[in-house]
From TrEMBL:
Signal sequence annotation: none
UniProt similarity note: Belongs to the short-chain dehydrogenases/reductases (SDR) family.
Pfam families linked: adh_short (PF00106)
Highest taxon above the source species: Bacteria
Protein name: YciK family oxidoreductase
């Protein structure tokens, strides 16, 4: 398990957009970004859940968050451009982007996979991060050091029977991250990496493993260290990596960091 104790001001002054911020991992990570000084833009499809996270951040005395309700399934390219324009006019910057929202879809053999569901899962898990990243690119490029994090999964790194569109979308997410990382190696200070959070106690996990005892799993609040590390300056130089909360350690990433020209 990745363990990291960041300085309290790790993300001070940064503006970070988190998708799927209303529940599960997105909620916990948004709160930890805010706790370390970031202004967090909470994007998700259920306003009530976003409002609850907003209130938690406010009552903790962290920098005021913002809510951006958006259904990634139906959003058009124009909706993403409008979002980027709003970020520019309201905040003037974007330092971090966490693509966290995902749809699980159904667990079933590929030949039985419902075609409408296939499109929905790929729209939310793959096409939405593509359109959002594209729309936010100029803002990210203008930031002194921007970090973009994609959320993967164990089934996005090794195929597993019955995980269908979800697994395919996560493999594609890794491909997107790697392709983008190589393109960004010159002329930008944008870093991109992917995170596999590992089994975590959320409603998505419960839907995938209904017979599992959730008490055996870490809470979303227990796994925020890698997200914080990759969002902050201490990970400068970590770029194009497929990382895992369970399998990577701070020491290992610090060794990559110290050998990277970007770390200077
Ligand atoms: N939990 C695990 O064990 C595990 C393991 C590997 C990878 N992951 C990955 O970790 C990330 C977070 O998952 P989680 O476990 O925290 O799941 P979760 O609790 O189900 O949260 C998923 C979030 O995505 C949002 N979302 C889904 N469809 C959306 C749409 N059309 N538009 C906007 N937002 C949408 C949901 O919004 P609503 O709340 O409004 O529905 C929710 O906030 C996902 O990328 C998942 O693939 C999780």
């Amino acid at each position: 398990m990745f363990v990291y104790t960041p300085p309290a001001d790790l993300l001070k002054g940064r503006v970070i957009l988190v998708t799927g911020a209303g529940s599960g991992i997105g909620r916990a990570v948004s709160k930890s970004f805010a706790a370390h000084g970031a202004t967090v833009i909470l994007l998700g499809r259920t306003l009530k859940k976003l409002e609850a996270v907003y209130d938690e951040i406010e009552s903790a005395g962290y920098p005021q968050a913002a809510i951006y309700p958006m259904n990634l399934e139906g959003a058009s390219p124009k909706d993403y451009e409008d979002l980027a324009a709003t970020l520019k006019s309201e905040f003037g910057r974007l330092d971090g982007l966490l693509h966290n929202a995902s749809l699980l879809g159904t667990l079933t053999p590929l030949v039985n996979y419902d075609i409408t569901m296939w499109y929905q899962v790929l729209q939310v898990n793959l096409n939405a991060p593509f359109m959002l990243t594209k729309a936010c690119f100029d803002l990210l490029k203008a930031a002194p050091e921007a970090s973009v994090l994609f959320t993967s999964s164990g089934v996005g790194r090794k195929g597993r029977a019955y995980w269908g569109a979800y697994a395919v979308s996560k493999f594609a997410t890794e491909g997107f991250m790697q392709t983008f990382a190589e393109e960004l190696e010159t002329n930008t200070a944008i870093r991109v990496n992917s995170i596999s959070p590992g089994a975590t106690r959320t409603s998505m996990r419960r839907a995938a493993y209904p017979a599992e005892n959730p008490e055996t799993l870490p809470l979303p609040e227990d796994i925020t260290g890698l997200y914080l590390y990759l969002m902050g300056s201490e990970s400068r130089g970590i770029h194009g990596q497929a990382l895992s909360v369970r399998d990577n350690s701070l020491e290992e990433l610090q060794a990559i960091h110290s050998h990277s020209p970007m770390a200077e």
